[in-house]
Amino acid sequence: MNIQEKFEEYDTNRDGFIELDELKTGLGIEEDEAKKLFEQFDENKDGKLDFEEFKHLMLKREFDVFDLNNDGKLQLNELMEGYKMEEEAAKKIIAKYDDNKDGCLQFDEFRRWLHDVFLQNEFNHFDSSKDGFLQPDELKTGYRLEEDAITKIFKEFDSNSDGKLDFNEFYKWQVTEEFKKFDKNNDGQLDKDEIMSGLRCDEKEAKEFIVKYDKDNDGTIDLNEWYGVWKI
C-alpha cells in the first residue's frame, strides 16, 4: 500500500487533510464507522486527519485485517497471505524486524518495516535520473526546498562529500527530521508525551518504547537512541 498515494486520492479538495466525508468515501464505510476512526486517530481533535494521523490509521487497519487470528501479531503465514509474498521473502522481513525474536511481527515491528518501505519508495520516486542517488536538484524539486535548506542538508548528511545522497544518507536525514518533528519543546529528548503524540500510541506503548530503546536510562529518547530504533 502506498500511503502517500492513498492520502492524495482521498484528499479530494486538496487541502492537505482528510475530512470525515473524504474518509467515509475513500474507505467505502458508513458514517458511524468513520466517526469511530476519527475518535481514535484524530489525535489533536481538530476534526481532520493530517498525513501522520492518516498513515497511522491506514497501517493499523491493514495490520488488523492481516492479523487473521486477532492475536496482535502477524505470523509468517499471515504476512505471506496478506502481502501475497513468497515464504523466503516473508522470512527475511521477520528476521530483520522481529526485535523480540518471537517469530512474528508485532505492530511496532510491522510499522517499522513499512516505514522503511515508505522511505525507499519515496527515495525511488524522487530519484528521477534512476541512478540510485538524490542530486541537489532532485531533492529541491521533490521536497520544494530553498537553496539554503539544500546546502544545510548536504553539509550534515552527505557523509562522503560526493555531492549526492545515497539511500542510507537520505534515510538518516529523514529519521532525523522525524525526531525534530516529535521533539515539540526542542530539548533534544523525546519524553513519554512526545512519543505518544509522534507515534500515535497510548501511554502503555510509549512507556514500553522508552524501556526498550532508552540506553542511558534517563527516561527519554535522545537522537542517538532514536537512531537505534531505526538501526542507523
UniProtKB/TrEMBL annotation:
Keywords: Calcium, Metal-binding, Repeat. It comes from Anaeramoeba flamelloides. This is Calmodulin. It holds the Pfam family EF-hand_7. SUPFAM superfamilies: EF-hand. Residues 1-27, 29-64, 85-120, 145-180, 201-232 form the EF-hand domain. PANTHER family: EF-HAND CALCIUM-BINDING DOMAIN CONTAINING PROTEIN.
